[in-house]
Design brief:
This protein is α/β, with parallel strands linked by helices and 513 residues long. It is 37% helix and 18% strand. The protein is built from 15 helices and 18 strands. The strands form 5 sheets. It has an 8-stranded mixed β-sheet, sandwiched between helices. Strands 1-2-5-6 form a 4-stranded antiparallel β-sheet, with no helix packed on it.
């Protein structure tokens, strides 16, 4: 055997020596040189790839089984391996423990391609992602928003009777009409940052973290059913008195409930169970017929990644953020966390309880709740052009289904709007998507939807003679603001002249008899 190099690939030619006969095996030998040379690769012999189409067809024809070897058509799977088909194991999941076991097995089969570097980010995108991630994490820690100060919501927490510490963000004035926002599965309340900030000048925005997500605590008993999530939301609504009441007990202040994905299912369930509290539902990329692995849990929620790059590659594949390093860093910060913040080599994971499972939810129940809510609540369907799992045609089908009369009555009003993806050209004339414009468009649609509900409520109160609205000139508003600022400045100056040994300022209790 000898080798020689042709081009850049070493070729190995075998010399086979065989005797002509047993008698003259010492004298004469038969020398046979193999015509086909095999390339050497990592110490193993591999057959060179066939490039011509005709040779490939001939090889398939030789190795193919006869027709009688195939199974009958009714039992043979004729679908291609690349097509997405539903996993029959998902249909059997009914508890949080089963969802956790399925997620573990799923991650064992699908996370290695990211952890081993088989699927990774582009090197230039990875460098930009690492730089943007440092900036986003710093701004989020210091100012509460990825773009810096003046845009983040106030961090709030609330201890619920169930023992769950509910975390939520709040923007705007607490006297303004409220808008409550619910995030998707395996996400956090920060997904609403760019949507809530433009609405804060007129509305009170509340974005919550579901139990088991984000900075909210996890349930020790793995109680993540629809009833538990609706009860958490109701406790928040009651404590913050989002619905005003008159002397007869009727609600006087309507508000809007927004939900994305799984948050839309919880929003519809809350509006169906607490009639009269919600005046409008804004559902962003929510389809009642979503499969269980899309609506009730995430197959990757129990995954462990060796670093930030593998998890970022997964997020880029799921959301289509191949070249957008900035929003890939924002999405990573919203959804993921380090296992050990002091040691980045410990790996990353999603900020969700691996046992999370939205039990007691099915397409039939989701449709029943939406049809029950449609006659008494305004519904806004928001279709995102960048959505990978909810097409515009499907959104139109959902709208037409909700507009049909049901046993609960005719729909009060169902609208479908499209949020532009903000497509633009960069410096190299490449098409990119500006997600800030996308979120701004969603905020504009929600604002118009809430303004319509607010105008209708004010007109009703004006017609009943309960309230009277008078226009206020800008000069009066500026004068009131100047007066308040003067009072604050006088208080600061008075506090500056006070010494440590001075007595405290008098209170009303000092003048009681």
């Amino acid at each position: 055997m000898f080798s020689r190099c042709v081009g850049r690939r070493p070729l190995t030619v075998f010399q086979v020596v065989a005797p002509k006969a047993a008698a003259d095996c010492r004298d004469s030998r038969l020398r046979v040189d193999l015509v086909m040379a095999l390339p050497l690769k990592k110490g193993f012999l591999t057959e060179p790839a066939v490039t011509s189409g005709a040779s490939r067809k001939e090889r398939r024809r030789k190795t193919a089984l006869p027709d009688v070897a195939f199974l009958p058509a009714e039992t043979y799977d004729l679908l291609d391996d690349d097509d997405e088909t539903s996993d029959p194991m998902v249909a059997e999941i009914e508890t949080s423990e089963q969802a956790y076991q399925y997620s573990v097995e799923y991650c064992r089969a699908h996370c290695n391609q990211f952890n081993q570097g088989l699927m990774r980010l582009d090197p230039m995108v990875n460098v930009a992602f690492a730089n943007d991630l440092s900036a986003v994490r710093f701004n989020r820690k210091m100012w509460g928003h990825h773009d810096g100060s003046g845009r983040g919501g106030e961090q709030r927490t609330m201890l619920l009777p169930s023992g769950i510490v509910l975390h939520y963000l709040e923007w705007g004035n607490d006297q303004a009409p409220p808008i409550v926002m619910l995030h998707d599965v395996c996400d956090s309340c920060h997904i609403w940052d760019d949507v809530a900030q433009p609405l804060a000048d007129k509305y009170r925005i509340l974005a919550i973290d579901f139990r088991g997500h984000g900075e909210s605590s996890r349930s020790p008993r793995h109680e993540y059913g629809v009833d538990a999530l609706v009860e958490d939301l109701h406790e928040l609504v009651v404590r913050l008195s989002l619905n005003g009441r008159d002397w007869g007990g009727a609600y006087t202040r309507p508000w809007v409930l927004c939900g994305k994905g799984m948050g839309g299912a919880v929003a519809a369930a809350y509006a169906a169970r607490h009639e009269g509290r919600v005046a409008g539902l804004a559902l962003w990329d929510y389809d009642p017929d979503f499969p269980k692995e899309r609506l009730c849990f995430s197959p990757y929620q129990a995954g462990h990644f060796r670093g930030q790059e593998p998890l970022a590659a997964l997020l880029a594949k799921q959301m289509g953020l191949k070249d957008d390093a900035k929003y890939l860093a924002i999405t990573f910060t919203n959804r993921a966390e380090y296992v050990d913040p002091a040691d980045e080599k410990a790996g990353c994971r999603f900020r969700v309880d691996p046992y999370f499972f939205l039990s007691d939810m099915s397409p039939g129940l989701a449709w029943t709740q939406l049809r029950a809510v449609a006659p008494r609540t305004h519904i806004l369907l928001v279709h995102n052009q960048s959505s990978l799992d909810w097409s515009y045609e499907r959104a139109m089908e959902v709208r037409r289904a909700l507009e049909q009369p049901s046993e609960h009555g005719e729909a009060r009003g169902v609208r479908l709007v499209v949020a532009s993806r903000g497509t633009m050209l960069d410096e190299d004339k490449n098409i990119v998507e500006d997600l800030q414009k996308l979120y701004g468009g969603i905020a504009a649609h929600i604002r118009g939807f809430a303004d319509g509900i607010d105008r209708a409520a004010r007109a009703k109160l004006r017609a009943e003679g309960v309230a009277r609205y008078e226009p206020i000139a800008e000069q009066e508003i500026e004068a009131k603001q100047a007066e308040r600022e003067a009072i604050r400045q006088a208080a600061r100056e008075a506090a500056g002249f006070m010494a440590k040994e001075d007595p405290p300022a008098p209170t009303f209790a000092d003048f009681d008899d």
